[in-house]
Every structure is written in C-alpha cells, then in structure tokens.
C-alpha cells in the first residue's frame, strides 16, 4: 500500500509533544475511538492503546466496542483488514501508516494459492468431496484478506499462533489433508506436536515450482502441505543461541515463538504465541530467568514490566519488526488529528465480496478458539 509522506508540521515534533497531542486528540474523540496495539509495537505506541495483544486477541477485541465510530489499529495491514471484516459497516478501521505490511504475508498471493489448489486437484482428484484426499486450506492470520476469502469459500479456516493446533485438529476431523500457508514453521511445529512426521507426512510447497517442487507421490503421502514462507524476525533465532543462553544463565527457561524453525522449537523449553509468552513470564516466580525468542519490543517490555525476573532476548543483535516499526507516533497523531477535524485518512476497507467469504473463515477461527466450531 502507498503511504503519502507526513505533512511537514509532524516531522519535526519531539517525542513529548507528540505524546501530549495524541492524548489531547484522544480526549476530544472520547468513546468514538478505540486504539488497538499489537505486542510488537514500540512502547510509545502501546502507551496509547486501549487494548494490546497478539493477532488473535486483537481480532476479538476489535468487536467489543460497537459504539465506537473509529478503530485505529496499530499493527500491520492484514490485521487492519481483519478488524474491518469483523466489525460493523458503521465502524471505520484506520491504519496509521499504510506502508506497514508483512513480509510473510507477501510470500503467498491469491494467484499462487489458486494455482496450487488447481495443481493439487489434478494430482489428488476431487479434493473437496471427502475421503483421504480431501484437502482443507488453512491460512495463518498473517495473510491478505483475499486469501482469507479463498479459505472461507473452500471450507477452511484462518488460524493464529494461539489456536493453530485447534485449527489443525478441526481440519483433520473432516479432511485427510491440509494446505497450510503462508508460514511453514508454524504449520510444521504444530503438526509435529500432534504426531505428524515432518519427513514422511509433510510436503513443502514452493510456489515458483511445478507441483511446488514435489512429486505426485509425495503429495499423496502427505497430511500437511506447507507453504514455503517464513517470518524474517523469527528465522533469526538459532539452536546455538539457546546453547549460549543455557551456558551463561544456568537454570534459564527458554521460550520461543512457533514461527521459529523446528530445531529451535525442539531445543527450547517452551513455545507459544506472543500472548502465551506474556502470560508465562508474568506468572513466573520472582527470581526466575527467561530467554525469549520473539520480537524485541515485546521482550524489552516484558523485562521492564517484570523487574523481579531476568528477561532477555535470545538474539542480542535482533532488530524490531521493520514493518511494525512503521507505525511511528507521528503517524498516529496525524490520523487522530484528522479525525478530530472530521476527516478520515488511511482507512482500510475490504471489498464486500472478499469480506463476505473472509468473514466466514475468520468466524470459524473464532469458533475454533472457543471450542465451538461447526462444519
């Protein structure tokens, strides 16, 4: 998405002035405004959020204030799309910086997924009728709205790192195979935890190769077909970093995000979503030590909010998520100032037909998350 440059009056403001003006704009907007902040946002953004959480939690929080006219989502584009899909037509969803995208989401597009679906049908037969070769698509929430719509139209669901296992269990209750995109590592780690063999029962689909780089036999034998996508932040964590943490901090608990590679997850003590990591560290006893493998803004915040524990990032050189970091406080201030003036900027609006099917898939995700999913 193209983001126009900020008006010059916003580019030279100091941090304290920006924060003070954001608070003033929020006070004027009152109950008309709800601000959502993803865990990976910088502290200067989280300070102004009414709700903070991971993708799954914020997807639910978006619908808790039907009286609000405006939802300002401090996250990335696919999150704002999901909020628009799940909220009433009367609510306007705003992304402070339209350039805040997601490199993982960009690794699977609608054309590629439709092509993969067609090729799978040619190899497996009628993949939507029933039986061992029936395939259900699952898209990680880190994907564009049109992919969520594709999944909804073909009987599948959206998942997050919080409910990926529940989503796979639901899918396998009615199909023999799953096409899981765009993050291969979340799909692989979740499948392995369920007893699916990564060597014999999983295939990796490369969208730039015929049959994804697989033989027909490999696709027939596989229960989970993983898309060749990944998170550039979580790919940085290594087994060597875990070994170093254990050497330097005896008794440390290592907890990583399931977007990390399989060997990293297997070498850690625990793995879980950003929300699970937050809850685990918060509930841990005083004096405990935690090495965390996820985005640095969340890790630093955990360390600051848990001064009775030692909390550090596995990778001492890791940078913030570059796309999340595009939500600078100055962009938030600009969006709020425009709302105070009666103007909407940076609205994220999903086309009606796309929203209709994506809402089906997201609805299944929310039902699966509460254990009430229906066919």
Task: Summarize this structure as a short list of keywords or feature phrases.
single chain, 375 residues, alpha/beta, five-stranded parallel β-sheet, four-stranded parallel β-sheet, 16 helices, 13 strands, 14% strand
Structure, described:
With 375 residues, this protein is α/β, with parallel strands linked by helices. It has 16 helices and 13 strands. The chain has helices at residues 8-11, 15-29, 43-46, 55-61, 77-86, 110-124, 145-153, 164-172, 184-193, 216-221, 239-248, 262-267, 274-283, 296-305, 329-340, 352-369, and strands at 33-38, 51-53, 70-74, 92-94, 135-140, 157-159, 177-181, 202-205, 224-227, 253-256, 270-271, 289-293, 310-313. The strands form three sheets. The chain has a five-stranded parallel sheet with strand order 6-5-7-9-8, with helices on both faces. Helix 7 links the parallel strand 5 and strand 6. Helix 2 runs parallel beside helix 15, helix 4 (55-61) packs parallel to helix 5 and helix 5 (77-86) packs across helix 16. The longest helix is centred in the last third of the chain and has 18 residues, at 352-369. It is globular, with a radius of gyration of 21 Å.
% residues in beta strands:
5-15%
Report the mean per-residue pLDDT as an integer: 91
Number of β-strand runs? 13
The portion of residues assigned to helices is 40-55%
Question: In terms of per-residue confidence, which ranges show pLDDT below 50 for 5 or more consecutive residues?
Answer: none
